[in-house]
Amino acid sequence: MCKHLSLLSSYDSELHWSLDLLKEFRTLIPLARKYRMHYILGVLCLVVTNIGELYIPQLIRQSVDTISLGIFELRDIGILVLAIVGIAAVVASARFGWRYFIQGASRNIEYDMREMIFDQLLVLSPSFYAKMKTGDIMARFTNDMHAVRMASGIALVALLDGIFLTLAILIILFTSYPLLALYTVIPLPLITLIILLAGKVIGRRFKRVQEGFSRLSERVRETVSGIRVVKSFVKESYVEKLFKEQNAHYKKLNMDLIKVWGLFFPLVTFISGLTILLLFIFGGSQVIEGTLTPGSFVAFMSYLTMLRWPVLGMGFTINILQRGAASLSRINVILDERPDITSPEKPLPRAPSGSIRAEGVTFAYSEDAEPVLTDISFTVDAGTTLGILGRTGSGKSTLIKLIPRLLDPPPRTICIGDRDIRDYDLLRLRKSIAMIPQDTFLFSDSIKENIAFGKPDASDEEIRLAADLSTISRELYQFPHGWDTIVGERGVTLSGGQKQRVAISRALLLDVEYLIMDDAMSAVDSETEEAILQAVIQKRTGKTNIFVSHRVSALQHAHRILVLDKGRIIQYGSHQELVTCDGFYREIYLLQQAERRRA
To answer: In what order do the strands lie in the sheet containing 568-573?
Structure first.
């Protein structure tokens, strides 16, 4: 009794698992509706194809029976042959039609879904990218999308073929030869059982394969991105060992899938072949006895041969749908993700302007984490410059990321122009702020295209002026193709200082109301940094700037300076005020002055 209950429970869980997996196809419904005319025309062509294929055995039956009688005219056979050729031509045309419409629709769905995923990735918050690896995302763009295309295209064909042809053939056989049909279809229920059992196993193992591919992709991506570190530490053999282990695991997952998939088709083919054997046993004796004509025997065999495809097609459909559902479940993880940071329902109808004011800002990266910032309050008047200094880990980068809402501050704690930054449209807020992050990122494009990234229609003169401000134009002669020099992935062909200055030029080209630089000149010498800051402040007269730096010489031009330590403000004032009183700012100032004199 317990054993039966256990089996029943196992079956029930398997059923729920399959139903849950099929629910993932909800994402495809709007896209399928968009291309419904493609599917309607494709199904009509498929029906024409199947009707033509079902009628051909009847013509073959007439031809064989006519020849078997021994008395016939060549003209009669010629007419039947021409009819078969004509129907075959119609079938070929209709087959092209369903391939064009249904496969075309699946390609369009793949295209649209890729755009959906990419658009979704652009709006998701940093917290999503903290938990989702790049290689995993790329795998969902490639392998998983291929499985979705198959599920929305060839799977539909196999399903319709399986249903239409199976029912039509069984109706023809049981209507014309009921007893013989009953004998020959005995193996078919066994095939159905195998399809149901194998489909569940295949779906689960395929999902493991896709997850394994994601991990393998991430391993390759991480190694290539960090190839300099790998070579510097002479760890080639170590990363090769890690890759081999991951690759071997991926191979094992594929072999686990192939073992089931490889056994499935031969087994189904063998069982479906038993129908032919039964036909020879029972049908052959009827032909000998004269109760079945040779033509009917050949037609019956043709129908049984045709029945093999829809039976296999049903298994093929189950497999593709299981794969598609498994891939869609992974894709839906991205599509179902909601960004943490969004625009308000009714944003202000204008761009931010005016002073920046922070009042009692306390921020933690999660509810159970210690605050990174505690009770931060300051004001940056419009048209002035604020400098920020602090030890590593004091919360400087976190603080400035709150202003463009790259991280979301608590409500009513940061205002621009006396309005909470959360009241502004998110895109308008960020378009009014040019931010140069601590980790400089360049695209694998030319220097010119990298500078013009935020303003693609910028003139050559505007690009040159922005490059002059950052001083990168002084080194133009060092680049083999001038502005058109390709910088490589993440700017690998440039030095750290050159990358930072290209990034500064990119931000200055925008000429927006607010400029934020997060220690963006750490890789240039102090004299160059001071020259750049003086040029920037002069160029941006009347506009608001916030500079983060570890060098007092870079901050002395700011109107006000904020000193942070352990997420709290420990000093706040002008350069002259801070260097004349004891504290962290004066200590750093004296230390750096001594270092400059020794240099």
So the answer is: 433-436, 514-518, 544-548, 385-390, 560-565, 568-573
Query: What one-letter code names the amino acid at 108?
Result: N
Distances (CA, A) of 580 to 556, 572, 583: 13, 13, 9
CA 423 to chain centre: 31
Please choose, from the candidates 363, 269, 254, 359, the residue with its C-alpha nearest in 3D space to the C-alpha of residue 311: 269
Cα 108 from Cα 427, distance rounded (Å): 30
pTM over 0.85: no
Q: Give me the long-range contacts of 242-251 (CB less than 8 A, separation at least 24).
A: 243/219, 246/215, 246/216, 246/219, 247/216, 249/212, 249/215, 250/209, 250/212, 250/213, 250/215, 250/216
In tens, the pLDDT along 284-317 reads 888 887 788 888 888 888 888 887 777 766 766 7
Q: Is the pLDDT of residue 13 over 70?
A: no
Contacts (Cβ under 8 Å, ≥6 apart) of 299: 57, 58, 60, 61, 64
- Distance from C-alpha of 503 to C-alpha of 501, rounded to nearest angstrom: 5
Could you tell me if 507 and 454 are in contact, meaning their C-beta atoms sit under 8 angstroms apart? Answer: yes
Between helices 36-69 and 294-335, what is the axis angle to 10°?
Answer: 160
Among candidate residues 416, 362, 386, 356, the one with its CA nearest the CA of residue 572: 386
The candidate with the shortest Cα–Cα distance to 441, out of 546, 529, 520, is 520
Q: H/E/C letters for each residue in 520-557? A: CCCCCCHHHHHHHHHHHHHHCCCCEEEEECCCHHHHCC
SS3 (DSSP) at 234? coil
Domains of the chain: 31-335 (1.20.1560.10), 356-598 (3.40.50.300)
Tell me the pLDDT of the chain averaged across its residues: 83
- Asked if residue 352 lies in contact with residue 424, where contact means CB atoms within 8 angstroms, the answer is yes
Q: Cβ atoms within 10 A of the Cβ of 582, count?
A: 8
The residue among 499, 505, 521, 515 whose CA lies nearest residue 470 is: 505
Q: What pLDDT, on the 0 to 100 scale, is given for residue 22?
A: 64
- pLDDT single digits (tens) 547-566: 998 888 888 888 999 999 99
- pLDDT for the residue numbered 8: 42
Element (H, E) at 302: helix 294-335
Q: How many CA atoms does the CB half-sphere of 43 hold within 13 Å?
A: 12
Q: Smallest Cα–Cα separation from 39: which of 97, 90, 92, 111?
A: 97
Distance CA 577, CA 593 (A): 17
- Rounded alpha-carbon distances, angstroms, from residue 60 to 66, 85, 93, 294: 10, 12, 21, 10
Residue with tokens 């760890």: 235
Across-strand partners of 348? 424
For the record, the structure tokens of 482 come out as: 């001038």
Residue with tokens 């300076």: 561
Q: What percent of the chain has pLDDT over 70?
A: 93
For 175-232, what is each residue's pLDDT tens digit? 888 888 888 887 877 777 777 677 667 767 877 887 888 788 878 877 877 776 777 7
